[in-house]
Amino acid sequence: MQRAAALVRRGCYPRTLGPWGRGQSSAAAEASAVLKVRPERSRRDRILTLESMNPQVKAVEYAVRGPIVLKAGEIELELQRGIKKPFTEVIRANIGDAQAMGQQPITFLRQVMALCTYPNLLDSPSFPEDAKKRARRILQACGGNSLGSYSASQGVNCIREDVAAYVTRRDGGVPADPDNIYLTTGASDGISTILKILVSGGGKSRTGVMIPIPQYPLYSAVISELDAIQVNYYLDEDNCWALNVNELRRAVREAKEHCDPKVLCIINPGNPTGQVQSRKCIEDVIHFAWEEKLFLLADEVYQDNVYSPDCRFHSFKKVLYEMGPEYSSNVELASFHSTSKGYMGECGYRGGYMEVINLHPEIKGQLVKLLSVRLCPPVSGQAAMDIVVNPPVPGEESFEQFSREKESVLGNLARKAKLTEDLFNQVPGIHCNPLQGAMYAFPRIFIPAKAMEAAQAHKMAPDMFYCMKLLEETGICVVPGSGFGQREGTYHFRMTILPPVEKLKTVLQKVKDFHIKFLEKYA
Amino acid sequence: MALRTGDHSQAATNGLKEKVLTLDTMNPCVRKVEYAVRGPIVLRALELEQELRQGVKKPFTEVIRANIGDAQAMGQTPITFLRQVLALCVHPDLLNSPDFPDDAKRRAERILQACGGHSLGAYSISSGTQLIREDVARYIERRDGGIPADPNNIFLSTGASDAIVTLLKLLVAGEGGTRTGVLIPIPQYPLYSAALAELNAVQVDYYLDEERAWALDVAELRRALLQARDHCRPRALCIINPGNPTGQVQTRECIEAVIRFAFEEGLFLLADEVYQDNVYAEGSQFHSFKKVLTEMGPPYATRQELASFHSVSKGYMGECGFRGGYVEVVNMDAAVQQQMQKLRSVRLCPPTPGQVLLDVAVSPPAPSDPSFAQFQAERRAVLAELAAKAKLTEQVFNEAPGIRCNPVQGAMYSFPRVQLPPRAVQRAQELGLAPDMFFCLRLLEETGICVVPGSGFGQREGTYHFRMTILPPMEKLRPLLETLSQFHAKFTREYS
């Protein structure tokens, strides 16, 4: 709230000429120019310092790769140098990077990528025909038939068509227009771009962006950078991180006092919280957005990561459409997907797309213009996205292996989700909501009063203190809940479920042992 | 699910047809952004291509996209070794294939070892894979005659554009009269003006001297700076060398003078050096800002803040689509460098395939490697062809009355000056178009040749230019240049 007020005070002033303007004669101008203050020469400070740099950038935080991860890096270096620790390796359970933790890439995807990268391989007998067919199709759509050309800024045409076809299939026939599809450098790029276009106004009319608490801290980081107003709405931990429209209403009502709420972000399946919202909930959110005239951002990068048999992924696009034309012709929506999660885990390729619905045609023009400055998203990532949306189908040579690999990855993740939830819930002082989807556990931890004091003495948030101790004593790197946001007085950490099963069991056991010791120590 | 009962009153008060996001409600800074390289003329070119595909008859059979520095789109072939190493990294099964040379395999294995999970699919650390940054540092040291480069000062990026925007973002602060001003060359590559518009920073133009082959004059820098201090706080000076669109390669003396000026005036230097491998003219040589800075000794070497940018999109590689690049920061405040690392971390990491290509580009095959001969031959062929095209372009344009083309010393573009008759200028004004946009649109409609008007890059008032790439295939280039010259002559006659 304080931050919001501070931001309101700063506002967004038009950048105009200074008081001197241009009314002087050229001689006078010259003279006064010579007298203009030059930077101090005698005590030569750097030009770019913490004081002189962009204050909005300074305000940015991103816990997923923040202080605890830097500490983990230091500890790894120490281990490399042979310094003795109570553990032999650092377990990076801080980031949703499946392949870094040993998950195998999907063979078909890499085959098509290799063929696109080095088309000589199209003559090789070691590649299946269906992979070659897809590679040829992609290459033909590229300038000079090469991944090395810039694509159109919106992305390669045939890939956008494939994405539209995928979305249509996924949504049971609800049509998707390729013209509404924008390929992006990971989903983060699309989210950042849409938020950028949305943010305007000054003082009390500065754009407010509603985000879930807990959230994936890309949102708060971009909001900081853009000097927009962050409007928190709390997910209900006691109800499996459910989204309550009354809470949305509360948040927007309070926000209207100091900003212009224009945007509502929702992450489904949730990160870090792992809940999969019900269809009713999604309808309620859409209705709310319609009522309050909010632009909806639906972060759906975990749409393939649904584990609970009682849950299903409902795409915002589909639900919107099925709610009838009053909503489907009016509510402005952007949905995001990525190659980084799901069963693919292709984080490094930076592939993603967004589908925009009901955007004003002039805005679409502005969007393409903005994207054109950065030329295009990496074409290799676009190709990866293409394979994700256009995988082998029954009857194709690669179908069986593809299906097996996909099921194996998803089955594995589901097992690990359950394992994690169950094990954490056996630990006194830890409570873990069901991991219905995504890739993370976000258990709540009880931190005794003495530990809170110790944390304060170290000038750390209590859960940061806890996580630092965990890291130092076990080598396990997780991210404190304060990095994602949480209700005042509650503490959590986010841990990925990505280490291989056996290692995961060990990790969970170690966390359990640590927690019990921690409780005893600070009793 | 239909509209709920009782909500119809809501519908009435909602003003439902009005959108949340319109031109009026959008980010005003984004609205001001322009990027001519893919701007209106290119949109028209796309329409024409569409019409051709639909069988509409035109005075030409194809649209020539001479608007963008994309070599492979115009038929340049990728370097075999680069693609081999990348393919091996993408699909490590190929490490067992007899179709790949051993040195490519060793490279791929080395890179994969340095990746999380030994896979390109893992995020790298945000500044880029450690091993690759070390290789980039070694490249810089070799390039700069042994002057040390620290891998910790190197940040890999999603093309050079990404890193340039990051630096500008860090630099922009203040309000009103203290708002950050950034000096940029006119003519410039319009990423700079676009980024400054988006960041709501103050663009401060300094003019390159067309009469002296686009030379950079410190007196002009001084003029621009002093005027700028009236209304903003100039904090940074951008220089593109070799130049885009202008193609000049600055002399060492010039670079020293710029460094001295920047130091005296307290300006952070941004040196866009993506064309460092594209130097064609006899007597021209690329001098890296880092090298010159260091050789100037203290206080410059130890205190002048500098960021130098490079990319895999240009040079002999032409791997635009992979979005590979890096920035080396020199004498950056340590706390700011941490902030930069933090800012980069929000977007996780640059694309790993682009990182791989960069790695191979900065550590190419050595003479003793099996792939050396082919690599060298391909590299030489690409650069020789570019040099020949640069020369041809300059020559043909200078044969045309009313077209004057400065020497294309480097980069990938010609930026000729065209005389436009007053009646044409008038006609353009009637149509609400910049005169050179009018010229370029007519050129496009009548010949299918798509170039970018000089107004998209900036130029002295009353002068008109266009930027054309030298990239069309050699056999097409001369006819294209001649067609363009003929069109200009016809246009001149029409409006005389």
TrEMBL record, chain A:
Q: Which GO terms describe its cellular component?
A: cytoplasm
Any single GO molecular-function term of the entry would be: pyridoxal phosphate binding
The Swiss-Prot or TrEMBL record lists the needed cofactor(s) as: pyridoxal 5'-phosphate
Query: Which SUPFAM superfamilies does the entry link to?
Result: PLP-dependent transferases
Enzymatic reactions = L-alanine + 2-oxoglutarate = pyruvate + L-glutamate
Q: In which pathway does it act?
A: Amino-acid degradation; L-alanine degradation via transaminase pathway; pyruvate from L-alanine: step 1/1
Which Pfam families is this protein grouped with? Aminotran_1_2 (PF00155)
Every copy of the Aminotransferase class I/classII large domain together lies at 111-510
Alphabetically ordered keywords of this record:
Aminotransferase, Pyridoxal phosphate, Transferase
Q: State the EC number(s).
A: 2.6.1.2
One GO BP annotation is:
L-alanine catabolic process
- Keyword Secreted recorded: no
Return the CDD domains for the record: AAT_like
Q: What interactions and quaternary structure are annotated? A: Homodimer.
Can you tell me which family this protein belongs to?
Answer: Belongs to the class-I pyridoxal-phosphate-dependent aminotransferase family. Alanine aminotransferase subfamily.
Sum up the protein's function in the record's words.
Answer: Catalyzes the reversible transamination between alanine and 2-oxoglutarate to form pyruvate and glutamate.
User: What name does the UniProt record give this protein?
Assistant: alanine transaminase
> Which source organism?
Sousa chinensis (Indo-pacific humpbacked dolphin)
UniProtKB/TrEMBL annotation, chain B:
Please give one Pfam family short name.
Aminotran_1_2
Please give an example of a GO cellular component term from this record: extracellular space
**Gene Ontology terms, MF aspect:** L-alanine:2-oxoglutarate aminotransferase activity; pyridoxal phosphate binding
Where is the Aminotransferase class I/classII large domain positioned along the sequence? 108-483
> What is this enzyme's EC?
2.6.1.2
Query: Which cofactors does it use?
Result: pyridoxal 5'-phosphate
Question: What InterPro entries is this protein classified in?
Answer: ALAT1/2-like (IPR045088), Aminotransferase_I/II_large (IPR004839), PyrdxlP-dep_Trfase (IPR015424), PyrdxlP-dep_Trfase_major (IPR015421), PyrdxlP-dep_Trfase_small (IPR015422)
**Which controlled-vocabulary keywords does the entry list?**
Acetylation, Aminotransferase, Cytoplasm, Phosphoprotein, Pyridoxal phosphate, Transferase
Annotated compartments: Cytoplasm
UniProt entry tagged with the keyword Acetylation: yes
The protein's matches in CDD domains, at most eight in alphabetical order, are given as: AAT_like
Q: In which pathway does it act?
A: Amino-acid degradation; L-alanine degradation via transaminase pathway; pyruvate from L-alanine: step 1/1
Its main subcellular localisation, reduced to a broad class, is: cytoplasm
Relate the assembly described in the record: Homodimer.
Query: What task does this protein carry out?
Result: Catalyzes the reversible transamination between alanine and 2-oxoglutarate to form pyruvate and glutamate. Participates in cellular nitrogen metabolism and also in liver gluconeogenesis starting with precursors transported from skeletal muscles.
- UniProt protein name: Alanine aminotransferase 1
- Organism of provenance: Tursiops truncatus
- Its gene? GPT
